[in-house]
Amino acid sequence: MGKGKADLGKRLIAALIDTVIAAVVSSIIPFRGIGSLIGGAYILVKDAIMFELLKDPAWKNQSIGKRVMRLEVVGPGGSDVDIQLSARRNWPLAIGQLLSFVISLLSYRALAWSSWSLLTGVTTIIGIIEIALVFTDPEGKRLGDRLADTRVRELAEEVPSAG
Predict the structure, then answer these.
(1) Is the pLDDT reported for residue 115 higher than 80?
(2) Which position among 12, 93, 105, 116 has the lowest Cβ density within 10 Å, counted as fewest Cβ atoms?
């Protein structure tokens, strides 16, 4: 059970942790953009994937970064987040890495380079909008939260582990 709007510092640190995880995966698997695909997929489903893989209630509604920072994301009416809701919430954050996978498949270099430039600009703008919304929205909702009707809140108590 959460206790209201999450601390912005904790949210930023949680986001940084998840971004580093995706970046490391992208870097260590460079072949034809597969790393970008896996890193982007992690960002897309990060709020549900650990629970889906482990089936441990301690991981419900949390990415790795959120778990470290004792935050959770909840759906409409406080409902749990599944893979679909996580993807709806996180596509603005994942779109850059997922499109970079598609671009890496392009064999025409001039098109690939111009696409990278456009992609960098678009993802930068989306990132700025997301950060601005977290800071200016009374509930701390970013674009993804608005699209998925989710919100991030602090955990009030420790969730017991199944194992």
Answers:
(1) no
(2) 105
